[in-house]
Design brief:
Layout lengths: L42 E4 L18 E6 L4 H12 L7 E5 L10 H11 L3 E4 L7 H6 L1 H21 L4 E5 L28 H21 L2 E7 L1 E3 L12 H15 L3 E4 L5 E2 L1 E3 H14 L6 E3 L7 E2 H11 L6 E4 L14 H6 L8 H14 L7
Parallel strand pairs: 2-3, 2-4, 4-5, 5-6, 6-11, 7-10, 8-13
Antiparallel strand pairs: 1-3, 9-12
Helix pairs in contact: 1-7, 2-4, 4-5, 6-8
The protein binds NADP nicotinamide-adenine-dinucleotide phosphate.
Length: about 375
């Protein structure tokens, strides 16, 4: 369950931090399993120091290294925790702190400052966000805008006030312009309105990039952002209405199988998506934190050739969960953006040898996790 392939090379010494000589993402050991307990409060993970604490990158001279992960209890946060604790992703002397909303409501500035004061991080991976699937976005665009604008400003500005030089935040491929040419790349984020279904979330996310540029130009900070495509994996939100598409479909398929009913898929099944496994994203975000030098964001995605239709994903889920019933596509429901094909050329130029987990394997591990953790899964 949730085992990963070994990366071919061990983590490099921290001194080799240059985009032209990139290191491998976090080392991954085989046969590790993801804890089935859902963490509700802050997790602190300290890797014992064997030698004087190494620095995360050439520009940060603070010691010790304390990495605060906001949104540490979510899909991406749990995957990073897994890589750090189970797959050799942490370096000697590092302390990793994983926050959930129960530790601090980051829409509130006072709570944000208090949690930063408590942990005094030297680095931040900022994942916390109000997130959801297409239909929740369509219902609550205003709330997505307000919550995310506040969370992002509170986190980034508190990091700046505390003299933290390194923050990696998370954008999303669904924030790109609706009317665009394909493949989309990192230079195109602000080139036109996003799809109307999720404009609140998209504009709020785009402002992270604006803010990162501001901290760079006014204060020389190294705040950057990653742009994942559609992430899935253990600990995702499997809710049938509000979850991300793949996980919602896993849950729907399981229910249809148990009840012996047809599988109702919302939309035509035609939209195309680049699905990326949460464990792969986790390894890449850790690499970005350590090695990626630019302020401008980087797309973290499987290649354009790996884009699949929702229909293909549904068929793969049905095969994986051994669902043999009828599949019905409800075309009265919205399809959302028909495609948002993103280029991973920039990532590939820096990390040409990164191996993504094959989709069938990642899907199987996610389905297994869902079935084994049905009681605690968000659904
Ligand atoms: N999943 C994707 O396909 C995808 C794709 C592209 C980008 N991203 C981005 O990746 C990041 C992580 O997404 P995810 O999929 O891991 O989401 P997730 O599983 O829903 O997790 C969201 C995390 O944010 C925390 N959070 C939400 N509201 C908060 C608040 N007001 N104060 C403090 N913490 C709060 C949640 O804490 P609780 O657990 O306590 O609620 C949880 O830890 C987000 O920035 C998202 O925009 C995700």
């Amino acid at each position: 369950l949730y085992s990963a392939r070994s990366s071919s090379s061990p983590p490099p010494p921290s001194s080799s931090s240059s985009p032209s000589s990139p290191s491998s993402p976090a080392q991954v050991s085989p046969n590790t399993s993801l804890s089935s307990t859902n963490s509700l409060a802050c997790q602190r993970i300290k890797k014992k120091k064997k030698k004087p604490s190494s620095q995360m990158d050439s520009n940060n001279t603070q010691s010790p290294v304390r990495i605060l992960v906001t949104g540490g209890s979510g899909l991406l946060g749990k995957a990073i925790e897994h890589v750090v604790t189970k797959q050799g992703g942490a370096r000697d002397g590092e302390e990793w702190i994983f926050l959930s909303s129960k530790d601090a409501n980051l829409t509130d500035l006072a709570q944000t400052r208090a949690i930063f004061e408590k942990h005094r991080p030297t680095h931040v991976i900022h994942l916390a966000a109000k997130v959801g699937g297409l239909y929740l976005h369509m219902k609550e665009n205003l709330q997505f805008w307000r919550d995310n604008i506040r969370i992002n400003d509170n986190v980034l500005h508190t990091a700046h006030e505390m003299n933290i030089n390194r923050v990696v935040s998370c954008l999303s491929s669904c924030i790109f312009p609706d009317k665009t040419t394909y493949p989309i790349d990192e230079t195109m984020i602000h080139n036109g309105p996003p799809h109307e279904s999720n404009y609140g979330y998209s504009y709020a996310k785009r402002m992270i990039d604006v803010q990162n540029r501001g901290y760079r130009s006014q204060y020389g900070r190294k705040y950057t952002a990653v742009i994942p495509t559609n992430v899935f994996g253990p600990y995702d939100n499997f809710n049938k209405e509000n979850g991300h598409v793949l996980s919602a479909l896993i849950n729907k398929t399981h229910t249809a199988k148990v009840e012996g009913s047809p599988l109702q898929v919302w939309g035509s099944g035609k939209p195309l998506r680049q699905f990326i496994y949460s464990l792969d994203i986790a390894r890449l975000i850790i690499w970005v934190l350590r090695e990626y030098e630019e302020v401008s964001p980087i797309i973290l995605s499987v290649g354009e050739d790996d884009e699949i239709s929702i229909k293909e994903a549904v068929e793969k889920i049905a095969e994986t969960l051994e669902f043999k019933g009828e599949i019905v596509y409800d075309t009265t429901k919205s399809d959302g953006q028909i495609k948002k094909t993103a280029s991973n050329a920039k990532l590939r130029s820096l990390l040409p040898d990164f191996e993504f987990t094959p989709f069938p394997q990642a899907l199987k591990e996610t389905c297994d996790w869902f079935l084994n953790n049905y009681d605690i899964a968000r659904r």
